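W.,

You were right to be curious about this one. When I first looked at the sequence I had no strong expectations either way, so I just let the prediction run and decided to look at it fresh. Below is the sequence, 298 residues in total, followed by the output.
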Amino acid sequence: MPRATRKASAPRGILGVVIYAALYLASDIILSVIAYLLYFGGVISQNSFTFLADAFSLLSLSIAVFAYFMIYKRASIAKALKDLGFARKNLLRNVGIGFLILFIIIMLELVVALVGQISNVQINTNVQNEFIGAPLWFYIFAAIIEPVNEEIFFRGFLINAINNGVNRMGSLIRYLALFVFAVFNSVLVYVILSSFIQLPVIAEVAISAIAGFAIEYLIARRASNAKTSAITGIANGAVIFGLGHYSYYSTFGIEVIAALMFGLIAGYVFKKTNSIYPGIIAHVIINTVAVIGLLGGI
């Protein structure tokens, strides 16, 4: 296939994965050096340096995405934006769908709150622990910039990367990739399971491993149908997105579960609309409300 007609939407097998990882590492190192220079130059305090380093590491996810398109795929910024779902077609409709996603998430949160009230169990998110001592700019970053950054990587890039990348891999590498996803599933199940019930560690690990591999088997089997192959990227992308919220150590792993549900819904909408805007709209509003709550001491 001529290079000019290649679709710049996902890594081609293991090479693309390695290239993206290298670009992410390079971006993170460069930004970390900038943060260190600002700190040692007396421009920012040690506290600001800590949060700036965290913000730079997160931003490296989407920076590496654009670097991947431009360096490896030799695509223009306009082409990269289009493939990531930033097309203006049906923009108003997609913004409306974003508010629909927000409504669904709010309904799910109300159900969780109601269950907690009925069962007399206090469900804490512990998100506030991530903001202890944070400067104001970090709150703004978490409310507006970080959601866009995550949507670019997890929805705009990762779903297609998993979908197309796994499909183009050789048999051995493909099974290895599915094995890795099964491990991710197992970790997610373990996080949720261990939050709800207390069993011997070996039993929790065994149950989580069986469930995780069973889930991936069902995903892979379902995805063998061309019409439903998108489920590979949507489901596994949502699992990775959910695990990224484990550091909150919330009650019953509620942040992990919430992120998983959001990832599944936003991922499905992204594949149906080919637009990243619905996920961005919902994600930004959710984060903004949470940040306002933190600033207000709610």
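Here's what jumped out at me. The radius of gyration is 20 Å. And, maybe more interesting for your project: Residues 148 and 280 are 6 Å apart (CA to CA).

Coffee later to discuss?

I.
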